[in-house]
Amino acid sequence: MFALTTSRITWTAMIGLLVGLLAASTGPVAAIQPEDVSIDAHTERDCPGPASCVFTATGAITDVGTVTTDFVRATALPSPTVGTAQYVKTFHGQAGSLTILLNSRITSTNDPTVWNEQGHWLILSGTGAYARLLGQGEESGIRDFAKQSLDVVYTGQIH
Fold this sequence. Notes:
8 strands
């Protein structure tokens, strides 16, 4: 009976030592701190010229390139002065591409052709230097229906 108890104690001690060694060997996991990013974009319907669908990113990303709208679903709320839209947009830069999901609310101004666009964006995917990025933020811009253009700033944090 004594040998069985000693064997159990030895076995329990070995398991405890193994668990302790595994926990110590993995070390603490350091979280990557989010960094601020700002993306200024100008887009025109159907991108008719080389400067018609472009962006400049600063902060955590420093890049320039073109922007495409991969998907859009626009709806009007039961009001003549508010609309909503959901987009998938891709920023094609020199260091890679970054695709976001954007939910926007569009509200009228005193000019019937100019509308405010405010929204929230979330990174869906990336390639190149942006392959593993996570992040989200806010959109603020002006949509001009007479010029068929959108001038917008996307601000937020990525990591």
